Amino acid sequence: MSTKDWIEKDFYKVLGVSKTAEADEIKKAYRKLARQYHPDSNAGDTKAEAKFKEVSEAYDVVGDPKKRKEYDEARRLFGSGGFRMPSGSGQGGGFDFNVGDLFNRGGQGGGSGLGDILGGMFGGGGRPTTTTTARPRRGQDIETEATIEFPEAVNGVTVGLRMTSDEPCATCRGTGAKYGTVPKVCLKCEGTGMQTSVQGGVFAMTEPCTECKGRGLVVDQPCETCHGSGRGQSSKTMQVRIPAGVQDGQRIRLKGKGAAGERGGPAGDLYVTVHVKPHRIFGRQGEHLTLNVPVSFTEAALGAEIKVPTLDGLPVTVRIPAGTANGSKLRVRGKGSVRRDGTKGDLMLTLEVQVPHELTDEQKEKLQEFSSASDQPDLRAGLFGSA
């Protein structure tokens, strides 16, 4: 919406309310008119559709407290209050008047136009001149992957990543224009890089400008290196810190490490998907490491002290209680993965009792003596009870 629209259109009159109307009254009036002129209720009626757009435009301004305040101030200063829009064709006391001259150019003294004065008041004022600098543009995000070893995932590691990214063209320094020329602000989108269209008179859809392809700038003589895009390819190696405790498949965001922005805009972000190689003996359950430990039948039955490895290479001694069953769990505190607060999880041991596959005659005899001496009850008696 242009500055001229803000000053010349009476949005209160469109909605049928007074200038001092409360917000609830304005909303009620808008809903009533929107239902009356909605395209779904007036199929094929172009006048109703135009009225619906007019009502929606009016409510978009006076229905928003901030915009309403700016609109009222603009009307007070430059509308029917302090400065009247002249009209006429040079007859009957009138004179030719171009509103564009008022908003886009200064007076005879060469000063700034009112479009510059009102620019901050309602989001841009009049049309920008063709040499105005377009808005800054954020750089693109970059996606990459890194594969690390199991201990590196547990303790953290810094890796070098070779990446090819988009950056400002070195020849034209990102302008897209041939050396000695300058780009112009796109008149279609007024340098925003975006355009808005109304679908069916109801929904507004914002998309990249079709004229400048979202850049906000157009060039008459494109740069021979980037062909007017203003972008080039850069290949570099970046040192990236993978935090301790990262999981396989986890996606890490590094803010500001993506492609460089345009016209002073911020850089994009770098997203690294981490792949962790499996360890030969250790596993992970969240912040804890896991380890399956084989023990003999006699160690489980009689109890024992055994040594088990840890990820840092220093073994620890673990006490196995007498009568330990297969699959029992033991915990070694502080030997797991690093947490976010710097502390460590635990090492969780699963005991696997090993039954010998082959026995000597002497071993068989000793086990027979043990079986006879143990006088154990029938372990499977409960399986044959009544249902």
Automatic annotation (TrEMBL):
Xref: PROSITE patterns: DNAJ_2 (PS50076), ZF_CR (PS51188)
Primary gene name: dnaJ
UniProt cofactor(s): Zn(2+)
Zinc finger (CR-type) in chain: 156-235
Name of this protein: Chaperone protein DnaJ
Domain description: The J domain is necessary and sufficient to stimulate DnaK ATPase activity. Zinc center 1 plays an important role in the autonomous, DnaK-independent chaperone activity of DnaJ. Zinc center 2 is essential for interaction with DnaK and for DnaJ activity.
CC per GO annotation: cytoplasm
Single GO molecular function: zinc ion binding
Major place of residence: cytoplasm
Region (Disordered): 361-387
CXXCXGXG motif repeats: from-to residues: 169-176, 186-193, 209-216, 223-230
Keyword set includes Zinc-finger: yes
Keywords, comma-separated and alphabetical: Chaperone, Cytoplasm, DNA replication, Metal-binding, Repeat, Stress response, Zinc, Zinc-finger
Protein role: Participates actively in the response to hyperosmotic and heat shock by preventing the aggregation of stress-denatured proteins and by disaggregating proteins, also in an autonomous, DnaK-independent fashion. Unfolded proteins bind initially to DnaJ; upon interaction with the DnaJ-bound protein, DnaK hydrolyzes its bound ATP, resulting in the formation of a stable complex. GrpE releases ADP from DnaK; ATP binding to DnaK triggers the release of the substrate protein, thus completing the reaction cycle.
Free-text remark on how the cofactor is bound: Binds 2 Zn(2+) ions per monomer.
NCBIfam families, sorted: DnaJ_bact, PRK10767.1, PRK14295.1
Family: Belongs to the DnaJ family.
Residue positions binding Zn(2+) 2: C186, C189, C209, C212
PANTHER family in the cross-refs: CHAPERONE PROTEIN DNAJ 1, DNAJ HOMOLOG 1, MITOCHONDRIAL-RELATED
